[in-house]
Write a structure and sequence with these properties.
heterodimer, A: 204 residues, mainly alpha, Butyryl-CoA Dehydrogenase, subunit A, domain 3, B: 370 residues, alpha+beta, 11-stranded mixed β-sheet
């Protein structure tokens, strides 16, 4: 599929989207704490992937590292990505009103609350640690895939995750009496601010 | 000094459990998918042409990762180490430096004929990443390319037996609203946007459109899309050349991956265009600078004997061979063999092709010697 995506075959790209939209959305939702913003990130990621498709290399069997690397970059600067695709995004139809919208809204609120809780745990990590943690632990990328997505060495991923482990242990012990962070259920503060800040820190 | 074990995913997940991923509602995903498709297909036709061209150029390398191959014959190669026969790249470099200078006038064409013996491809099923075999070989290709890469003719016994013209894609233009297909946004509605006629572009076949994109305009020559004119400007000093290659290949890769990519970039240059003698000599010396490159004797896809420069890609578990004629240092062919098991790749030769003719001709579609 790499060759077909690189060759600009729309159907190959459709397959790429169908296979990976959920993965990108999950990552983006957990990174931003905002399922709606995450949808924009998904669209922006694939628009950017289409633009950059010539750079898709034959990095093993899965295009995941390449795609997630683009998603990480889009999240680093969502505003810039939106500006680049302003016209295209303007043509993206707004979410349709579905008949059972009340249920959907409740579901979304619950999602948002869980996400906000998890993000408080992520706050203990630096930007680089957070990215490595989310890609490896929550999105299921291997060490090697995570390294490729972030453009760093595998050893760097390993040390970031080691530091993340140390920080989370301290956090778990000190603040939460041994309970996992995400189950604390404290009310969320300003999650939109959250959504932007951590990603900007990671620009080096 | 004690060293802590690298953290395992399960352990980290206990420390900070995933909040779960709120799913993308299926109706919404469909809207986004069709939006993406319409943005892609409403962009310029010329851009797609470029990539058709790149298919021709890059597909041999491109096919490596997703292809499922079956073992075929590999020559019983004898190993020539640097110790056995001096320094193999230096030997090739000296031969290459003594080759006659080639001249290509602006109204002439570089003719290249290629015999593709093995070309396995895999295609994912819809959304599942499940592959099935596609065996494209054997087939032959011929191309006539102007020295600036902007015009010519391409023939492929499989995908374009009658041939298609090589033309420079038109300039990129802003998309206009009325070029966009209407997208029905009602939830649950069926979307029917015809993107490509499946009769014309069966998804699992190699395909060409009605033209092949040349180099020029918005798509200038690069290391990965070289032309005769472009290679005139390449550094002849091996270190300077390698610096350019590593630099332009990007900094995201490092270590073995970057070395492999540099090796393959040199290979692409040999494949795509004739080279000035000094440039070719510098490229052979550059091979010697890349970690992990070895040399032995062996054969190309058509059985011609030559010096095989090889590199094993640690990440991906395949070995790429570039075969050169020992007497003339001419490039003969490329072979890729998957060595290590991986989830979707099968052990064996997955790509094998030979360059069977290369010449400068006066007329487009003129076969050398006629």
């Amino acid at each position: 599929m790499h060759a077909r995506v690189r060759a600009g075959e729309p159907e190959a790209f459709r397959e790429l989207f169908q296979a990976h939209a959920g993965l990108v959305h999950g990552y983006a939702a957990r990174a931003t704490g905002d399922p709606s913003l995450a949808e924009d990130v998904v669209s922006l990621t694939f628009l950017e992937a289409w633009r950059l498709r010539g750079r898709l290399r034959d990095e093993g069997e899965s295009p995941r590292p390449w795609l997630m690397g683009i998603a990480v970059n889009v999240l680093r600067n969502t505003t810039r990505a939106k500006r680049r695709y302003e016209r295209a995004m303007a043509r993206l139809p707004a979410p349709a009103v579905v008949p059972d919208f009340a249920d959907e809204l409740v579901g979304r609120a619950a999602d948002a609350e869980r996400l906000a809780a998890a993000k408080r745990g992520l706050a203990a990590l630096t930007g680089g640690e957070r990215q490595a943690f989310m890609l490896h632990v929550w999105s299921g990328l291997s060490y090697e895939e995570t390294a490729r997505a972030l453009g760093v060495r595998v050893g760097t991923v390993r040390s970031r995750l080691s530091r993340a482990r140390a920080r989370l242990r301290r956090l778990t012990d000190a603040e939460l009496g041994g309970e996992p962070v995400a189950s604390s259920g404290q009310p969320s503060c300003d999650r939109r601010q959250w959504a932007v800040r951590p990603s900007e820190e990671t620009i080096r | 000094m004690t060293r802590e074990e690298p953290p395992r995913r399960e352990e980290l997940a206990r420390l900070l459990p995933s909040p779960g991923a709120p799913g993308l509602p299926p109706g919404r995903q469909l809207v986004m998918e069709e939006h993406l498709m319409s943005e892609m297909t409403s962009s310029h036709e010329g851009e797609r042409n470029l990539w058709r061209r790149l298919v021709l150029v890059a597909a041999p390398l491109a096919t490596v990762a997703l292809i499922v191959g079956a073992a075929t014959v590999v020559g019983s190669d004898g190993v020539v180490g640097p110790a056995a026969d001096g320094n193999p790249w230096e030997g090739l470099a000296e031969v290459a430096a003594g080759a006659p200078e080639l001249a290509v006038a602006s109204d002439q064409f570089v003719y290249t004929a290629r015999e593709v013996v093995v070309d396995y491809g895999g295609v994912p099923t819809n959304g599942q990443n499940v592959l099935w075999d596609v065996d494209h070989g054997p087939y032959e290709t011929e191309q006539w390319v102007s020295p600036d890469g902007g015009s010519g003719w391409y023939r492929d016994s499989d995908a374009a037996p009658d041939g298609v013209p090589i033309v420079v894609p038109p300039e990129q233009e802003e998309w206009t609203e009325d070029e966009l297909p209407d997208v029905d946004v009602d939830a649950g509605a069926e979307f029917e946007i015809e993107l490509e006629d499946p009769e014309i572009y069966p998804p699992q076949d190699r395909w060409l459109g009605d033209s092949v994109a040349g180099v020029g305009g918005d798509f200038p020559a690069t290391l990965h899309q070289p032309t005769w004119e472009y290679v005139q400007s390449l550094p002849v000093d091996p270190d300077a050349l390698l610096e350019k290659i590593y630099d332009e290949n990007g900094s995201a890769d490092s270590g073995d991956q970057a070395d492999q990519w540099a090796f393959e970039t040199l290979g692409e240059l040999f494949e795509e265009t004739p080279l000035p003698p000094d440039t070719a000599a510098g490229m052979f010396r550059a091979f010697g600078e890349i970690p992990g490159v070895s040399a032995r004797t062996g054969t190309d896809a058509t059985g011609r004997e030559g010096v095989v420069l090889s590199r094993f890609a640690e990440d991906l578990g395949y070995r790429m061979d570039l075969v050169f004629d020992e007497e003339s240092a001419a490039y003969l062919g490329t072979r890729v063999e998957q060595i290590e098991e991986s989830e979707v790749l099968v052990i064996g030769v997955i790509l094998d092709y030979a360059l069977t003719d290369r010449a400068v001709v006066d007329e487009e579609r003129q076969v050398p010697g006629t």
